Amino acid sequence: VGCVWVWFAKIYNISHIQTSNYNQLFLLCILLSIAVYSLGMLASTIFSDRGKVIFSVVGITVLMYVINIVANLKDSLDKLKLSSFFYYFDSGNIIVGKAVPNNTYLVFGLTIIISTLLAVWIFNKRDIAV
User: Fold this and answer.
1) In 9-43, which positions are buried (b, 16+ CB within 10 angstroms) versus exposed (e)?
2) Which of 75, 82, 115, 120 has the most neighbouring CB atoms within 10 Å?
3) Taking the model in full, what pTM does it have?
């Protein structure tokens, strides 16, 4: 993945590019995508209407984004940003080489595992005619 960015850096004469930063950003993009997807899987086992599933996942994602923005604007709400995926997915700091928050992988990993296990459990408890 990083080699594509190296090619673009050479085209635009950028000499200070670090591929490890982009590889880490790519990994976090994948983890964020799978976390949102696993929330969608969970929602699809709870709701049988497609519109409710889409609305709930988009609503949760937008809510997390708004929470992150509001928490960054107001110091008294600083702890609230810990409930947002977008706090952990800090692409700007990753690209410039700053450290990823300590529990980023833990938050995404637990979200994926818990959402998937809950979805499987709820799906297996459904009364589906055979």
Assistant:
1) beeeeeeeeeeebbebbeebeebbebbbebbbbbb
2) 115
3) 0.80
